[in-house]
Design goal:
2 helices; 10 strands; mainly beta; 9% helix; 5-stranded mixed β-sheet
């Protein structure tokens, strides 16, 4: 995780809360992201998604110290070290406080062929704002034939 160590006075601070996998017709898989240990566990234990399913990611976070202006969300996917996909979304501003804010990604469809689904895909998620240092974390995804 990239912390907000070097932020100017009056800058916003982004705090991660949780990362959730959403698949229609299935219970949400919510994992905490609020401690370094939780982030390590997120990377070590990949999310499992059935081949051919439509899914979304829900990111929960807080903003501290100042309003986060023009929040940017980057979602990068790698497989065997090579970049497979990159999605960037720009959002509005988010006020500071105890409120947990959420970002829901656009729906994606998991691949269906065996070659595309072999191995673990490495995802990197980054949140940043014009007035806040970036917060970044990694997690894995395995595309499977069954939910188990």
């Amino acid at each position: 995780m990239t912390a907000n160590e070097e932020r100017p006075t009056g800058a916003a601070r982004l705090e991660l809360v949780a990362h959730t996998l959403r698949v229609a017709g299935r219970p949400d898989v919510r994992r905490p992201t609020d401690t370094p240990e939780a982030l390590k566990a997120l990377k070590a234990d990949p999310f499992k998604i059935l081949r051919g399913q439509q899914y979304q990611w829900l990111v929960e976070f807080r903003v501290r110290d100042a309003t986060a202006a023009v929040l940017r969300h980057i979602h990068m996917v790698r497989r065997a070290g090579a970049k497979v996909d990159k999605v960037e979304q720009i959002h509005g501003s988010f006020p500071s406080g105890d409120t947990v804010h959420t970002l829901l990604t656009e729906p994606e469809e998991s691949p269906t062929d065996l070659v595309s689904t072999a191995g673990t895909f490495e995802y990197t998620l980054e949140l940043s704002a014009q007035n806040a240092a970036a917060v970044r974390y990694d997690f894995g995804v395995k595309f499977t034939r069954t939910w188990e």
